[in-house]
């Protein structure tokens, strides 16, 4: 079957595959909600334990601690994004001077902002807690009024959070974008002073497309591996690349990464469909594949819950 838009352009139905599984069970939903509520309660407690007449240092410190807890709560709420039906595919049409019209994956800044706010809150709370202890107060560190070690450790934690926040803010300015065109796949890296670097692989040189992950800060963010041959591209990024394989980091994009890889694998095997990437309605194609995948994912989650009950 095919779907048709107003211009009678045929967009094929692509089989959605869950390359990066998500736990959609009721237990995972309950756990995420419990932790989100817990951090929201902790944020309220931080406000409640410091009166407004305690001085500007404890009040600002309590605001920083609450900001940290709100960031943690938002992270757990973000795990439930699969429950919400989106209207935005997270894909935009893009015209490149060399490759012509195609699509670009939009970088989602909400997670970056939440992370930076949480780090800022941690740094602010730690600094104010140390200053409060230094001036003889005990609002932010009630157990460390006479404990120099506790106050010192909280200052070290605040300093580490501030440094990490600054480094991440700088790194976010030099983002990696992923673009696909009728003639190939491009990875573009923003560099200082308005420069950029591009690695481009033609479709005919792509041997395989597969899901993968890379190691970063004790986590494994998702990545698409593009195995290629017969091209002049050399691996430049030690985190993503290896000989004969180009890594496309997709952990920050707004689109559904399972839909993205499913469509890419379809285009690899169906060369005539690649021209659809130049059509203005191509982003809606990605959204339609995502919605079909959400239905399949919910059914899979229900099946897992039923099997768990039977056991």
TrEMBL record:
Please verify whether the record's keywords include Membrane.
yes
Q: What keyword terms does UniProt attach to this protein?
A: Membrane, Transmembrane, Transmembrane helix
Q: Where are the transmembrane segments?
A: 26-50, 56-77, 113-133, 153-172
Keyword Transmembrane on entry: yes
Name assigned to this protein: Uncharacterized protein
């Amino acid at each position: 079957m095919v779907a048709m838009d107003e211009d009678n352009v045929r967009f094929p139905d692509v089989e959605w595959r869950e390359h990066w599984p998500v736990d959609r069970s009721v237990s995972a939903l309950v756990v995420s909600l419990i932790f989100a509520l817990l951090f929201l309660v902790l944020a309220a407690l931080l406000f409640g334990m410091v009166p407004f007449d305690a001085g500007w240092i404890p009040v600002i410190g309590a605001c920083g601690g609450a900001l940290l807890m709100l960031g943690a709560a938002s992270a757990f709420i973000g795990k439930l994004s699969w429950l919400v039906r989106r209207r935005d595919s997270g894909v935009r049409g893009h015209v490149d001077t060399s490759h012509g019209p195609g699509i670009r994956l939009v970088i989602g800044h909400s997670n970056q902002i939440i992370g930076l706010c949480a780090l800022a809150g941690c740094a602010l709370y730690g600094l104010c807690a140390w200053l409060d202890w230094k001036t003889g107060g005990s609002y932010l560190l009630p157990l460390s009024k006479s404990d120099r070690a506790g106050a010192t450790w909280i200052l070290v934690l605040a300093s580490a959070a501030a440094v990490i926040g600054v480094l991440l803010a700088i790194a976010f300015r030099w983002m990696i974008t992923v673009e696909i065109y009728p003639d190939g796949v491009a990875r573009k890296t923003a560099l200082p002073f308005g420069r950029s670097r591009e690695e481009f692989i033609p479709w005919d040189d792509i041997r395989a497309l597969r899901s993968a992950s890379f190691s970063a800060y004790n986590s494994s963010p998702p990545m698409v591996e593009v195995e290629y041959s017969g091209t002049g591209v050399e691996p430049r990024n030690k985190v993503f690349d290896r000989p004969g394989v180009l890594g496309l980091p997709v952990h920050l994009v707004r689109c559904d990464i399972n839909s993205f890889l499913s469509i890419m694998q379809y285009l690899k095997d169906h060369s005539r469909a690649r021209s659809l990437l130049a059509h203005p309605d191509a982003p809606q194609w990605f959204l339609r594949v995502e919605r079909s995948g959400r239905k399949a994912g919910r059914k899979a989650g229900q099946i897992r819950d039923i099997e768990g009950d039977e056991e």
